[in-house]
User: Fold these one by one.
Assistant:
Number 1:
Amino acid sequence: MKISKIICAAIASAMVLAFAGCAEKEKTTLVMATNAEFPPYEYREGDQIVGIDAEIAQAIADDLGLELVIEDMAFDSIIAAVQSGKADMGVAGMTIDEDRLKNVNFSTPYTTAAQVVIVKEGSEIASPADLVGKKIGVQLGTTGDIFAGDIADATVERFNKGFEAVQSLNQDKIDAVIIDREPAKVFVTQNEGLAILDEAYTIEEYAIAVAKDNTELLDQINASLAKLEESGKLEEIIGKYIKAE
Ligand code: ARG
């Protein structure tokens, strides 16, 4: 009697473990790493993170039947979060870049973007070529940071948030800011006396970063993005935040 009880208990607990094992493998969330300091792509509205990237990520999660979880962090922590599996994907207005491609894979691009130069109105800096020898503010770890580092004799001031670089320009502590065009437009409308140079610094493409070994998710994201593009939903999301000039 006793022995059969033990066997029964053993079988029962094995079943529980097997069941728990199955449940663990069934993924129900899609964790997005971002840096919500980047309007109109990701920013805070009350305690919500909203913007183009948040909506694209939500649409992908819906398509994959997963619950979207957004983790807000420093921009230069996103790649590491994706690599370590702390996040499933990085969606942060992230430019496809050679160096990043050594550490993560990128989805198909979902939009074209540009780095632009913000100056004070009436600045002697009239084109990107005039940045030589200047004090340039950037957000740490962004492509703006990388490009500023290539400008001859320039001093690069790195800020945790793009907005802080703009504030520093406003206070005449630096001569210019190199940052992505759409956030630049938002920051310039929030601060009087600033202007964006007509000539862009570079043209780039934004895509979603996924861990090198997670090609299954990469394929799923690409398939979802293709659907969003075909249905016109991608354009609709972007158009909601970026008004045509
Ligand atoms: N496009 C630039 C880059 O990839 C800047 C992105 C900054 N994004 C953000 N959410 N702060 O480096």
Number 2:
Amino acid sequence: MMQTPLTMTQMMKRAEMFFPKKQVVSRTASGIHRFSYKQMAERTRRLADSLTKLGVEKGDRIGTLAWNHHRHLEAYFAIPCMGAVLHTINIRLSPQHICYIINHAEDKVLLVDPDILPLLEKCASELHSVKAFIVMTDDKELPETTLSPIYHYEQLLTESDPNYSFPEDINENDPAGMCYTSATTGNPKGVIYTHRGIVLHSLALGLADGGGISERDVAMPVVPMFHVNAWGIPFAAVWFGTTLVLPGPYFTPKLLAELIETEKVTITAGVPTIWLGLLKELEAGSYDLTSLRAVLCGGSAAPKGMIKTFEQKYNIPFKHAYGMTETSPLALISTLKSYQDKLDPEEKLEIRSKQGTLVPGLELKIIGKDGEVAWDGKEMGELALRGPWIASEYYKDERTQDAFHDGWLYTGDVVTIDEEGFVKIVDRTKDLIKSGGEWISSVDLENALMAHEAVFEAAVVAVPDAQWQERPIACVVLKEGFKGKTTKEDLVEFLKPQFAKWWIPDDILFLEEIPKTSVGKFLKRTLREQVQKEVQK
Ligand code: AMP
């Protein structure tokens, strides 16, 4: 067989050649913007030309701090197709972490949405590698900013070559993208995506038993384009000629419902918090969402009740999936096998609320106390994955050795697997709390609390939350002499300047002691159960 390289340039060119009339609908700060893949391809070439003129070379990292919109989509293709690396930056992180990420990746240029400029200004003086800032604005004029040198995205495009030709010498194993993921403690860790990985992951998104995305779809990724490439949906959609709907900044459930109705969205994807919000909106208003053939849900466990309401009350098919930044992300998806159709509805729901079976192309093993676990839906072990779209290391980071061994990625997720191969996540070994699709490090909160003069010990655990899936609760043992004197409010005030608002624990419980393992580690599982009982009282 021929050894042709799997590069993103062929994805872009396919949309340009075969689907020039298909549309990208994008909600920006000033309203709904529509253009065709022909226009998108031309602007993508223009952006690549502009970046070349600014001195961007093969292998350079180009950061984006942006919402889901058409300009971000252009960057998604212009940057990798010119041989540079698309580095999407999570704008929900703290300014310190954002600054660390930009410096660690050594981003040469940053493409920034106007509303994110103030965030960037906070750390601009510490950015060592950035040579240019480009503002992706609808306005004719550049906003006022202290960042320099600063360029206007549209102005740059006007002055560029619409016939720029992408280099032919890209190797399929060259880096195309990168994204940082939160760590148990300390700075986020970088993951590099290669051209080959992105192409093969996109194929998986197109499989009927995978994402099932096709040309006939109208796909709306609600998951941010700064979080694992919006689960790779923009890449796959462009390649397949799928109509894309990008919901833009600060959307509400109402706005999403309206977009689904007016644009006749067929497939959409996001974290459970988004879908819980949409369900609430559906109860309040009247919308026609009959166009939807799939709601993809991942990032946190999809509650059974939610799946049931979508399917039984609203007749909207729901697909539960699992993945992580390190896995591009699609790894598991919960689709019933044909012969499981005859099971009763409750049994089917039980299976479909699991994280699912392995996507073709990947391999898994689940390692328990005594080696690989039995496929009995009971024995627990850590999920390990390998395959062509699974990362092999963290970028320039010694924490690689914690998660990658013998050619496998150890996910830190504790799971069971049943007789049919459906995997269910039961716990996490990583001390992270996932609130509304974003991570909170319990270890960082604990360290901060233990730096308070009154605190002897502190452990932070996740409790289930109807809206956010998980929220942090802190358990604190006060030092003798401070008991009865130091209050919850004192500790909250102490934490506030150190963390983003949504990191602050919802409650602080004062305990006599924190349960520990035989080696003195916090017994988080026991503590979690204890706290849950306390919270329910
Ligand atoms: P991230 O790298 O931020 O996308 O987070 C990946 C992690 O989110 C996984 O390791 C899991 O702990 C969690 N996760 C992702 N999908 C699911 C899911 N469907 N159910 C439960 N947890 C999930």
